[in-house]
């Protein structure tokens, strides 16, 4: 029997598990293949929905479900101590969990994700509200609801981070919200970003700068945060700026999972070296890397994981069936960008074709809402 | 002649949300002084932007080669 282990049950791990089980249905039915998802948590959070929670637009319960309910019944799911991965050892085809069990595999998919590294910036944890984790989104929700005006600094600490369009969305949704509750004239909004502009892709950067200017949102970039004084409410940058704020919203630095570092299989930020086309871990033909976990210069986003899941699935299935050609990931990404509380645009691109975002509209806003809602019944379950 | 260790090779020829400078900035933050990163860039305009950013940050381009339409730079911190 061939065993496929999927390390991580987030968006990437769940989609690829469900896609694999469908594609390998005959082999699983005959007992020739076993699929195992391993994750410490049995709580599945739809992370792209966290900014909506932070802004108070959706209830927290709408973006969280039990992982077991999302996985196909034919997928074995280990969680708790049995699912806490303490070591990944690709040289010996083994994953070790906190209960001391060594799980051997024929194929491994690493989907351990990206995580917040607050301590990289002194004072940041104490001062900043963020929707980049579920628990923090709940705290942000309270802080936003209590805000009555003042200076709001929105900061992106380091690149790359998950949901790259998220800071733009958070800024524009927040700005729209201040208008709707009648405090825009009492609110100064400053967006700070570690490289010149507000976003890394020229077409999107140009559109967003235009919208920011029209909406009176100030931009200070490059701004590489070095420390935050939570008492005095001052954020400082490597470039010498010091900004006083009443409310600090932002994106903390991101790193790959601790187990990647502990296993010695990642780079300095715990991203796993990955072939940008085949999605194989460099140096290991039976190990694939998916979603935020890779070191590929591509967006760390749910849609990226979804597009990648087709490639990983096809390559594992072909290998099991002895079919030679490898399927190649073309760098596809699709992200809606909310530009307010009832309008949005989107970017769709791949390695070779940059995006051309359309003008923001109500139609794309509803596209975004629908896309979020369909996650549970369509995307996560790999229906299409 | 300066010696350096290449810590990472980055293929920045494709489109990504952080852009080539955003991706490069994340890696340069991590490496130590004296260490280097090799980058592959897909066009002349991106190369100019990257070189301008490298100069502004006080880093150094220690090697530059052209392979077909692509540029390979080694950037030292």
Describe the 3D structure.
The complex is a heterodimer of chains A (384) and B (77). Helix content of chain A is 30%, strand content 24%. With 384 residues, chain A is an alpha/beta fold. In chain A, helix 1 (11-23) runs parallel beside helix 10 (302-320). Chain B has 77 residues and is of the alpha+beta class. Chain B has helices at residues 19-30, 44-57; strands spanning 6-11, 36-41, 60-67, 70-76. The longest helix of chain B has 14 residues, at 44-57. The mean pLDDT of chain B is 92. Classes of the chains: A alpha/beta (384), B alpha+beta (77). Chain A binds chain B through residues 158-160, 164-165, 194-196, 199-202, 224, 267-269, 276, 295, 297-299, 301, 331, 333, 335, 349-355, and chain B through 7-8, 10-23, 25-27, 29-31, 53.
Summarize the structure.
The complex is a heterodimer of chains A (384) and B (77). By secondary structure, chain A is α/β, with parallel strands linked by helices.
Low-confidence stretches of chain A: none
Work out the number of β strands of chain A: 22
Greatest chain-chain contact? A-B, 32 and 23 residues
The DSSP helix count of chain A reads 11
- Write the CATH architecture name of the largest domain in chain A: 3-Layer(bba) Sandwich
The percent range for helix content of chain B is: 25-40%
Strand content of chain B: 35-45%
Mean pLDDT value of chain B: 92
In terms of structural class, how would the helical and strand content of chain B be classed? alpha+beta
- At CATH level 2, the architecture of chain B is 2-Layer Sandwich
Shape of chain B: globular
Q: What is the alpha-carbon Rg of chain A in Å? A: 21 Å
In what order do the strands lie side by side in the largest sheet of chain A? 5-2-1-9-20
Give the ordered list of helices and strands of chain B.
EHEHEE
SS elements, strand count of chain B: 4
Query: How many domains would you count in the coordinates of chain B?
Result: 1
How many structural domains does the protein architecture of chain A include? 2
Helix/strand structural class of chain A: alpha/beta
CATH C-level class of chain B is: Alpha Beta
């Amino acid at each position: 029997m061939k065993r496929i282990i999927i390390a991580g049950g987030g968006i990437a791990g769940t989609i690829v598990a469900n896609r694999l089980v469908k594609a390998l249905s005959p082999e699983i039915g005959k007992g020739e293949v076993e699929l195992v998802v391993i994750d410490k948590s049995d709580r599945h959070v739809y992370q792209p929905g966290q900014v909506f929670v932070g802004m108070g637009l959706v209830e927290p319960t709408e973006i969280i479900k039990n992982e077991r309910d999302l996985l196909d019944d034919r997928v074995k799911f280990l969680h708790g101590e049995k699912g806490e991965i303490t070591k990944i050892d690709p040289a010996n085809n083994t994953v070790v969990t906190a209960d001391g069990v060594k799980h051997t595999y024929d194929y491994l998919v690493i989907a351990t994700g990206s995580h917040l590294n607050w301590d990289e910036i002194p004072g940041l944890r104490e001062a900043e509200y963020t929707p980049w984790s579920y628990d923090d989104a709940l705290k942000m929700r309270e802080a936003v609801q209590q805000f009555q005006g003042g200076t709001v600094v929105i900061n992106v600490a380091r690149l790359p981070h998950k949901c790259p369009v998220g800071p733009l969305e958070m800024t524009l949704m927040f700005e729209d919200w201040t208008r709707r509750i009648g405090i825009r004239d009492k609110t100064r909004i400053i967006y700070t970003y570690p490289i010149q502009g507000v976003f890394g892709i020229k077409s999107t950067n140009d559109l967003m700068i235009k919208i920011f200017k029209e909406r009176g949102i100030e931009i200070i970039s490059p701004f590489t945060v070095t420390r935050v004084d939570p008492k005095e409410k001052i954020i400082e940058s490597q470039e010498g700026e010091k900004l006083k704020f009443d409310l600090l919203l932002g994106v903390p630095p991101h790193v790959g999972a601790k187990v990647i570092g502990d296993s010695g299989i990642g780079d300095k930020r715990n991203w796993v070296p990955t072939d940008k086309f085949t999605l194989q871990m460099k140096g290991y033909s039976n190990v694939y890397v998916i979603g935020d976990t890779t070191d590929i210069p591509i967006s760390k986003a749910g849609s990226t994981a979804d597009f990648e899941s087709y490639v990983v699935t096809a390559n594992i299935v072909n290998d099991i069936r002895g079919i030679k050609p490898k399927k190649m990931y073309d760098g596809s990404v699709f992200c809606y960008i909310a530009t307010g509380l009832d309008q949005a645009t989107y970017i769709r691109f791949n390695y070779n074709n940059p995006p051309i975002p359309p003008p923001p509209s109500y139609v794309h806003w509803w596209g975004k809402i629908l896309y979020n809602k369909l996650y549970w019944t369509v995307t996560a379950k790999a229906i299409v | 002649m300066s010696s350096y260790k290449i810590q990472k090779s980055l293929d920045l020829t494709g489109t990504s949300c952080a852009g080539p400078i955003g991706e490069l900035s994340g890696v340069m933050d991590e490496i130590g002084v004296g260490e280097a990163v090799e980058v592959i860039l897909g066009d002349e305009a991106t190369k100019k932007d990257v070189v301008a950013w490298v100069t502004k940050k006080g880093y150094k381009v220690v090697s530059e080669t052209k392979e077909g339409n692509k540029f390979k730079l080694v950037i030292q911190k």
